[in-house]
User: Which sequence fits this backbone?
């Protein structure tokens, strides 16, 4: 079992074929570099950012509305300009990306765990479990994901005492976005599981005497993960945008920990008065992040397929 | 008194539920439908022998294989296994190995679960591969090599009984020869008992001690190999032998089998073969033949068939 | 001669160099004759058939040689011309009847469409002709089955429909690629009998591609044996089967299980496996596995040399 896990994960990552396929695709290298830069900048923001924009004491209102450094009136200290409260845009983007990425990744992780488990069980055992789960999925699919996230978020806000709102906001957001998307994985995995279940290597495992849970995790799961990876990376991007949308609407992250979405919202108010940089740069950052994550996901799916090597 | 057989099937049947989904049935008020894939099959397998089950697609032989191994449970009847351990080799070399596992893990799986004392490298060599092949993935091997890996996996479980479901049907003829020879060798060396499922009568005539002919879920004739090919009794067996392409090109005239296998959801009354049988009479249309002396046929029972006339495909 | 193939060469450029899938293959088929093309998977027999009808997928291509249909060269025709030829002068039957027929149209509609595409007939005439075809291929009660969809036919019946489709425009050449492999042995016998009869009655030349020597024995007059993309033996069926001249053919015949009274439990086997296209040895491609090889075999590649009533690409038959 250890051998299988080691074989499936570690060896694949350091296999020279992976590196070869990586180098072969310039698009992927660029995408990976960008993603790495974004992720690195985001994670290391407390150390890398020129300023901590959410520390009120560090702010200087006199530096408000400074344009980007290359424009007239700009300063090097505020490279991408500053917002209405004197916060350095570059720093807010880095901190904001941290929140966006965090929420995006965590919610996708949650929906992958839920959806893949549901799909595996549904596909393998069939019968009533399958019927019930798929009907729940069908019902949920008739609602747009954002609406579901809003619903869960709204219920949480009502259910929890208001002084806990800010502290719980991010976990609730993660659960909301996560729950809105589990169906995507469940359906694909269920379909793939049905296909794999009929294949003889699964029957061989049963003849050997493996228990159903072991068969699901050790035999079926590695063979159905391919599409999951692709959907997951696309969904990281969608989760980031969903969070941005919810934050834009004001029901996402609390104002004390703004994400890229919050920044775009806040900056929107100043768009028409000429301070375009407050909304544009966070917007560009969001697009870049989402795009590179998608491209990286495409490569990852192909690279992890042993048949294509 | 002969030793008890390793495996016995007593009037084993297996039905599959092929009804429309529950919601559809409720709305359309449709009935539950079931398909009888295996119909009161009985036979015994003695230790050390090779019993072959032949038949065309849909006759139920693969289902019988799975009933023997326990992948399905019988709807009625009893499967009794008195041996130590049973393993199975499958037909499709491309689907019977997990594409994401390395060969050595595939072969080692029975070792760990069943706690046998076998060595993976030794097993690979035993089936004609090299120990280095353990590090590779299944897709790096040809069809014949994959079947060898499947055999190694089966042997890892230290079985005394192996069910082989068309193990060479997907292979080229020269590769088939290699695999069949390997399986014979292993049988002698390790004292294995085989149940060999196939649609290929020529293959069966080479490797089997006894042959059971299946049609429409029923065993219509069961006989030692030499006897089945020299003096086939059931009309279906005779016609099947007749349909085998004549490589010897003896130029004997042939009567091709008329008609096709009936729809399993609408089985013909009486004997399942009667719509295609040149010897069918009124009784065949009404009454299902019982197995008498290992043949299920009214015409044979009533001695209406001239058993002396040889079909062309036999010897 | 209906079909003449001369020095046909099919190549696939790949990452690791050019792969030669069909190498210097030549043969001809006369009207009413069935030529069997036999070989194991990867030997190049299907590709040869595809080369004739111009359906080789790029980057594969015909790199050399000529294909002539009724005297006229067809391997270098533009796509549009080739498309008109297919169906009209050449009919094709593939292995899987399930995917050869469009599941969304009735078989009657598919037959009519094919007939109308290639022949200048009215709709009524096309329908009459389609019914006659169905009768000819042995579909009982064709009038009632005309409006049926493919899934309402059994495998054997579907293959008969496919044969009817292939013959709809009265082609002079029929290419059948593993037409009976997916069918049960009893149905196989019926289809083989059908092909033989049609070839004889209509004078159609038939190229029968299969891995099953038994089918060839029943159906063909001459047989071409393929190995690693090359033609290793060509001759009358009876001679090739009973006295093969090429060691590969001999090995192949030896490894085919036959129904005989002796329980010879061990089949003759050829050691090793057919080489992959990127690893074809120099000289004769069969030489590493050949029990009768000598020094010349590993160095020089043999051409088809006359050997009795057949021809074999083997130095054993070199005139000394």
Assistant:
């Amino acid at each position: 079992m250890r051998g299988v896990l080691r074989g499936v994960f570690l060896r694949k990552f350091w296999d020279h074929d992976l590196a070869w396929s990586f180098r072969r695709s310039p698009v992927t290298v660029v995408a990976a570099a960008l993603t790495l830069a974004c992720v690195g900048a985001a994670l290391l923001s407390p150390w890398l950012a020129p300023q901590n924009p959410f520390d009120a004491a560090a702010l200087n209102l006199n530096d408000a509305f400074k344009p980007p450094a290359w424009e007239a009136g700009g300063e090097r200290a505020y490279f991408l300009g500053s917002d209405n409260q004197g916060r350095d845009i570059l720093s807010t983007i880095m901190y904001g990306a941290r929140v966006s990425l965090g929420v995006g990744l965590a919610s996708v992780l949650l929906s992958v765990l839920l959806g893949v488990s549901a799909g595996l069980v549904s596909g393998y055992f069939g019968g009533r479990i399958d019927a019930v789960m798929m009907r729940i999925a069908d019902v949920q699919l008739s609602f747009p994901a954002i609406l579901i996230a809003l619903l869960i978020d709204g219920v949480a806000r009502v259910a929890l005492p208001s002084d806990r709102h800010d502290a719980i906001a991010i976990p609730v957001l993660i659960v909301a976005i996560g729950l809105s998307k589990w169906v995507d994985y469940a359906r694909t995995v269920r379909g793939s599981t049905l296909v794999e279940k009929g294949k003889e290597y699964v029957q061989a495992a049963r003849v050997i005497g493996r228990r159903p849970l072991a068969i699901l995790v050790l035999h079926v799961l590695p063979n159905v993960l391919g599409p999951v990876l692709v959907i997951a990376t696309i969904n990281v991007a969608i989760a980031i945008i969903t969070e941005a949308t919810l934050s834009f609407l004001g029901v996402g992250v609390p104002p004390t920990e703004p994400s890229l979405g919050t920044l775009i919202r806040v900056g929107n108010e100043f768009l028409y008065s000429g301070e375009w940089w407050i909304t544009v740069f966070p917007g560009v950052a969001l697009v870049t992040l989402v795009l590179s994550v998608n491209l990286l996901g495409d490569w990852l799916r192909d690279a992890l397929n042993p048949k294509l090597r | 008194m002969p030793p008890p057989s390793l495996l016995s099937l007593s009037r084993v049947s297996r039905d599959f539920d092929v009804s429309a989904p529950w919601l559809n049935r409720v709305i359309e008020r449709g009935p539950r439908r079931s398909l009888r894939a295996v119909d009161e099959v009985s036979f015994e397998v003695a230790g050390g022998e090779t019993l072959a089950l032949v038949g065309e697609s849909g006759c139920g032989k693969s289902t019988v294989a799975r009933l023997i191994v326990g992948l399905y449970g019988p709807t009625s009847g009893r499967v009794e296994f008195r041996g130590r351990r049973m393993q199975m080799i499958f037909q499709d070399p491309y689907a019977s190995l997990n594409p994401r596992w390395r060969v050595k893990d595939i072969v080692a799986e029975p070792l760990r679960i069943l706690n046998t004392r076998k060595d993976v490298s030794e097993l690979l060599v035993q089936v004609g591969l090299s120990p280095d092949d353990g590090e590779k993935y299944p897709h790096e091997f040809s069809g014949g090599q994959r079947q060898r890996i499947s055999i190694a996996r089966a042997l890892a479980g230290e079985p005394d009984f192996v069910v082989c479901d068309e193990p060479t049907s997907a292979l080229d003829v020269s590769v088939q020869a290699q695999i069949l020879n390997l399986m014979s060798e292993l049988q002698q060396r390790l004292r294995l008992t085989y149940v060999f499922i196939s649609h290929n009568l020529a293959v069966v005539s080479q490797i089997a001690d006894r042959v059971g002919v299946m049609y429409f879920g029923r065993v219509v004739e069961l006989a030692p190999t030499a006897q089945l090919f020299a003096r086939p009794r059931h009309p279906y067996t005779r016609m099947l032998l007749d349909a085998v392409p004549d490589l010897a090109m003896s130029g004997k005239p042939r009567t091709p089998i008329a008609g096709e296998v009936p729809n399993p959801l609408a089985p013909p009354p009486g004997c399942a073969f009667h719509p295609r049988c040149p010897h069918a009479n009124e009784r065949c249309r009404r009454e299902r033949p019982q197995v008498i002396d290992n043949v299920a046929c009214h015409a044979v029972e009533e001695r209406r068939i001239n058993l002396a006339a040889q079909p062309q495909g036999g010897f | 001669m209906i079909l003449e193939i001369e020095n046909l060469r099919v190549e696939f450029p790949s990452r690791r160099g050019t792969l030669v899938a069909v190498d210097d293959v030549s043969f001809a088929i006369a009207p009413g004759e069935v030529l069997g093309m036999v070989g194991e998977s990867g030997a190049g027999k299907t590709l040869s058939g595809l080369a004739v009808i111009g359906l080789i997928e790029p980057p594969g291509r015909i790199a050399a040689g000529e294909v002539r249909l009724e005297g006229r060269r067809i391997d270098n025709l533009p796509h549009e011309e080739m498309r008109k030829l297919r169906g009209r002068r050449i009919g094709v039957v593939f292995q899987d009847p399930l995917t050869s027929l469009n599941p969304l149209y009735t078989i009657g509609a598919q037959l009519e469409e094919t007939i109308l595409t290639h022949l200048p007939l009215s709709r009524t005439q096309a329908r009459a002709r389609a019914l006659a075809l169905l009768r000819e291929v042995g579909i009982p009660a064709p009038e009632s089955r005309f409006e049926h969809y493919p899934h309402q036919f059994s495998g054997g019946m579907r293959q008969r429909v496919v044969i009817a489709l292939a013959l709809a425009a009265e082609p002079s050449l029929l290419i059948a690629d593993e037409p009976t492999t997916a069918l049960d042995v009893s149905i196989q016998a019926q289809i083989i009998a059908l092909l033989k009869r049609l070839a004889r009655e209509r004078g159609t030349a038939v190229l029968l591609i299969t891995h099953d020597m038994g089918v060839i024995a029943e159906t063909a007059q001459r047989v071409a044996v393929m190995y690693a993309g090359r033609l290793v033996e060509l001759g009358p069926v009876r001679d090739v089967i009973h006295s093969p001249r090429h060691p590969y053919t001999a090995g192949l015949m030896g490894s085919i299980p036959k129904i005989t009274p002796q329980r010879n439990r061990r089949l003759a086997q050829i050691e090793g496996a057919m080489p992959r296209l990127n690893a074809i040895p120099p000289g004769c491609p069969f030489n590493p596995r050949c029990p009768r090889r000598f020094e010349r075999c590993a160095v020089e590649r043999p051409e088809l040399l006359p050997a009795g009533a057949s021809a074999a690409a083997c130095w054993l038959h070199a005139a000394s």
About this structure: The mean pLDDT of chain B is 88.
